[in-house]
Design a protein that fits this description.
It is a single chain. The protein is of the alpha/beta class. The protein has one domain. Strands 5, 6, 8, 9, 11, 12, 14, 15, 17, 18, 20, 21, 23 and 25 form a 14-stranded mixed sheet that branches. Strands 4-3-7-10-13-16-19-22-24-26 form a ten-stranded mixed sheet. It has a two-stranded antiparallel ribbon with strand order 1-2. The N terminus is likely disordered.
């Protein structure tokens, strides 16, 4: 297979594992002993142990929802839930990161992206955040951009008052699992009135076979603040199942603006069961921009709770299901405040028998007078074996809401394909051009470098036969 790389990005780069020594690997499977070891290893306060143990109890009592895609090949007892690479730690200098880990992130474009355009960068490798930095001028404005495992100690009051309040462990079985075994992640706090123009980025890399990642991202924006946070993810291919069950909680204060962008490109071995949720106060706004590729099974539905009057939510998502992959993605918006507005735009692609499903919820409560919502779901099927589904759930408890839903599923237009091929473009490249045109409205929502990366990843998927 030939691939035109973005920097050094290629399918081989993403799927390749690294030889890294681990100083602290717990036994496979989950138990109270493992949970206590994670708590002790991270040197956490006593209240976090209570959260972990209560979450473990919930996980053991709860059943996996039956409406989800099949998790029959995911053996939770074979997963390793914690491991520290030797020499890892919350390094503030890239030079201090162990060479074996540093080379991985160098191949993936970190920290080149930091030098080019970012206000801050975090990098996590398996259970550990190995690097975190923030520009000095933002530190001078009391912005906090820190490893969650560190923030829970040095910013304990803020973390404790927000941790798993938007996504409680009782939300579903994998939220409970996350609450029990989470490690690493990002804590971002932006004081009132501080507006950050350049994006902040975190990159999460799984490396261990039968591995895991349970990072917790906690973002708090006070009144009038604004920020753009970008997240990238990848994992090597081993042939055995790995699990990503991260959690993102975002608290958007009054008149604050938050954009959260992610490009998740796990390997086909990975079960990506991520939970993301934002609570938005009066006149606040949240934008979710996401691309999901690579993983064998993805279940991801970013959620916006429009709590305050005149709050806004925008969801833009791209999902690509190739051979042996099932992407079950979408968005959830809960309208509570008056004059709230939401927009959901979803683009899905299916190829080589892949299954793409849009699963969405718009819930307009009785209190949400004059709410408006627009949902637009488009699916593109690239062969006769693939499947595209749209499963919307719209609930309206007030008589003055305005809701519009549009869904379409189709195949590549044969006339367009013939026209491109008649101009000397080979069939595979012509189909790739059509696909890129199909998703281009959403790619425009990503920063230039990340839109370029997404274009390359889509091209890689198109070459995979």
């Amino acid at each position: 297979m030939t691939t035109q790389p973005f920097g050094d990005i290629s399918r081989e780069t993403l799927d390749r594992s690294d030889t890294v020594a681990y100083s602290n690997i717990l036994e496979a499977g989950i138990s109270e002993r493992v949970v206590r070891q994670i708590w002790e290893s991270n040197d956490e306060p006593e209240w976090m142990l209570d959260v972990r143990l209560k979450s473990l109890k919930l996980f053991q009592e709860m059943k996996t929802p039956t409406w989800w895609p099949s998790l029959a090949n995911l053996d939770l007892d074979s997963i390793y839930y914690f491991g520290k690479p030797e020499g890892s730690g919350d390094n503030k200098s890239w030079d201090d990161v162990p060479d074996a880990i540093k080379s991985t992130f160098d191949r993936l474009g970190i920290p080149e992206a930091e030098r080019a355009m970012l206000a801050g960068v975090g990098a996590q490798y398996d259970s550990e955040v190995v690097y975190h930095s923030l520009r000095q001028e933002l530190q001078d404005q009391w912005v906090i951009f820190e490893d969650m495992s560190v923030a829970i100690r040095i910013h304990e009051d803020i973390v404790r008052s927000h941790f798993m309040r938007a996504v409680p462990p009782s939300d579903h079985r994998f939220a409970a699992l996350h609450g029990a075994v989470w490690s690493g992640g990002t804590f971002l706090y932006i004081p009132a009135g501080v507006q950050i123009d350049a994006p902040l980025q975190a990159y999460f890399r799984m490396n261990m076979q039968s591995g895991w990642q349970f990072e917790h991202t906690l973002i708090v924006l006070e009144e009038g603040a604004s920020a753009h946070y970008i997240e990238g993810c990848s994992a090597p291919k081993y042939g055995t199942a790995s699990l990503h069950a991260g959690c993102v909680e975002i608290y958007v204060g009054e008149w604050a603006r938050m954009r959260y962008s992610s490009v998740e490109n796990w390997s086909v071995d990975t079960y990506n069961l991520n939970t993301k949720r934002a609570i938005v106060e009066k006149w606040g706004s949240i934008e979710w921009v996401g691309g999901n590729l690579g993983s064998g099974v993805t279940m991801l539905y970013p959620c916006s709770i429009l709590k305050g009057d005149d709050s806004r939510a925008m969801h833009f998502g791209i999902a690509f299901a190739n051979e042996g992959q099932e992407t079950d993605t979408g968005a959830k918006v809960i309208h509570i405040g008056q004059n709230t507005a939401s927009e959901i735009v979803s683009k899905s692609l299916s190829k080589n028998g892949g299954i793409s499903t849009y699963r969405g919820l718009v819930d307009i409560k009785k209190s949400a007078k004059n709410a408006t919502s627009k949902i637009d779901c488009d699916g593109l099927i690239l062969d006769s074996r693939s499947i595209s589904n749209t499963i919307p759930d719209i609930r309206i408890a007030t008589d003055d809401a305005v809701v519009a839903h549009e869904a379409s599923v189709g195949k590549i237009n044969e006339d367009t394909l013939f026209y491109l091929m008649s101009r000397g473009i080979v069939e595979t490249e012509a189909k790739t051009m059509i696909v890129r045109g199909f998703v281009s409205p959403l790619l425009k929502e990503l920063p230039l470098e990340y839109a370029a990366e997404m274009n390359v990843l889509i091209g890689m998927e198109m070459e995979w036969m």
